[in-house]
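Chapter summary example.
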Amino acid sequence: MAKIKHNNFLDTVDGVFSDATEAGVLHLYAQGSSFGGRKIKVNDRDLLHFGTTGYLGLEQDSRLKTAAARAIFKFGTQFPLSKTYISHPLYRELEEKVQVMYGYPVVITKNSTLGHMGVIPTAVRDEDGVILDHQVHWSVQNAAQQLKVRGVPIEMIRHNNLDMLEDKIRDLSSKCRKIWYMADGVYSMYGDCSPISGLMELSNKYPQLHLYFDDVHGMSWIGKNGTGYVLHKLKELPENALLFGTLSKTFGASGAVLVCPDVKMYRKIRNFGGPLTFSAQLEPASVAAASASADIHLSPEIYKLQDELRYKVRYLNRLLEKTELPLIEQNDCPVFYIGTGMPVTGYKLVRRLMAEGLFINLGIYPGVPVKNTGLRITISRHNEEEDMDHLAEALAYHYPKALEETHTTLNRVRRAFRMPVTNTEQKRKEPGILDLQLENTIHKINKEEWNTRFKGHGIFDWEGLAFLEKAFCGNAAPEHNWSFYYLMIRDKSRKPVLATFFTLALWKDDMLAPASVSVKLEEKRKQDPYYLTSHVLSMGSLFTEGQHCYLNSSHPQWREAVRILLETLETLNEKKDTSMLVLRDFTEEEDLSRVFHNRGYIKMAMPDSCAVENLSWQSVEQYVASLSSRSRKHFRKEVKPYEKFFNVKFRETVTAKKTEVYRQLFENVRKNNYDLNTFSFPEKLFAVMSQSPFWEFMELSLKKEYHKRKDGITLGVMFCYKNGKDTYVPAFIGMDYTYAREYQLYRQMLYQTVKRAGSLGFRRIDFGLSASFEKRKIGAKATPKVAYIQARDNFSMELMGAMREK
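The structure predicted for these 806 residues follows.
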């Protein structure tokens, strides 16, 4: 399997968001001539509003509104100057009030995102290191990436994993002056919190540890003067901590605030903090509204507001306790997350609730893993008890309806979130239209039935799979042993609707990551060979390429067949505890793409698949004439002149000594290819190839007259599989890089492969993925391919992103 492209994150998110928009749950517009907070008008309907982040409802407070309106008429809509030069007349008053709230020096920023971009590169020095919680807000992660160009190490830990954090601290302690751990106080999706007491214990144990908290979702609704969750737990902010709060969301205005107890660092950040220096300052209306809110925060009224909200949060918790709804986190935070698992279940449930007069946001990728989609319900002081009664009743009624409508179950959702399963769930009755055959060896699959669908496809006709099973079992190393799973789904007349196979194998987590990431990880694997490796259940295998899935899309039950496939994979995934499911080598098909996404998979672009489909020529001259004019020029300049340097031999069996030569050449290519960072193949693979009548080895050696040695030097080998009489498959290549550039070795091997396939009378060459530019030059056609991936969580992907070079 060649490398999945790296530049498709935005394309992936665009696809997810587009599906959610089409489902009517994203990119909506509020309507109406006014807004009170309790209800929101969408699609000409008034809906009870359970999607705000203004938890205390201060954005509707008349004191804030009046202050903002007066400021506009006094000072204008904006004060268009950098705050470094001069702040408008209301700024000093706001800064003084907020500083009294916290009791420490503060910096007011335009918003938290710009604040992080200004503060993090200033606070973190070149000799420091950074550790990110993998669920810390995107704005913090994005700002931290700026540090890479300065050589600051960026590490990442699993969410709230203090043992992993301590290991990272120890790793960095000898390399870094300060070690910054960056986390949220309250996490915006699930509503869970940082383990503050545990972090302070680590801080006391390791003086190098400094803490950077984004507490914008913990602001106002808790803490002395509404200063948030982190300070509520700490009571006092130590000098080794920086804290971000917000003047928007629950505070009711706009902007953000950095709290910095270190006076020296405070001066540096205030004097020059990137966007803090060059960006426009908050508008007069925003500053005035924030100042009015600060007055409320500095008065006893803030505790009355907090108590009102706390009562409503606990009221909803009591209502949800009476249901079987999978509430991911239960605490006093006004954020509730009810898992739906698959996106399609979330879409259906949100639409059902909107029909009941309820507006709720959906948590989707990349905010959460795709299979951890769910309802993100937020409570504010605007919500009344009767609103929450209606919400709980509607959820209890419509949640199981949405599960049934999307062919899933409560326990499937609970397993997706690693929650205990219930004992009351009844097994859903299957319609019995289709029949599944699941086997663990190709020898239990009818050869004729399989080959009817896969003969001529890569190395996964019946014979090819029998070869793979023999090669990848009974080996010493765990990465050299694969489990095979074959699925045949037939209709009532016993005709296959879907057929495919999967392998369960140990992958390097960075196989899909940029080469720069793999280089770093391979250094760590010199001490720990299995560092960041996981078991993956993948359609096809790391040895094969092509259309691994036969699907009769004209069959009326094809969607049901796909559903059975995905549910079977889910069961296997749970039993084998794999980290990722991969469906690969598909062409772009809108209907199928939507089905996979709705079931919790994200689409990733892969390298083009290359094939030569015109082998009808009878001579080299006819072959060259079949190429494009540009390719003909390439052939005459870069290919044909180098043919004279080589002896070309084709071997069906080879000695043990020659097998080792070939294996070493292959290892040269594998180890040199960080773009596809895989484990080695078992040594016996090449011996099994030699014993198989379906394989041959194309060897290129340098003629004796072009070097000083008496015997020819073997420079390259192509491992070629003969799939029936139709398809020739140059599966893998081995090369001696010492001579590769001088003699245009790779291009010559591609050309000799084409010559060989033509001379044997094959109709097609499956050249596989990657290097499409070179393969097109010798007549190959490139076809775009995509994969669909479902990860157990986003940690590995985000870790690779954190390690990626800027």
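To summarize the output: The chain has a mean pLDDT of 91.
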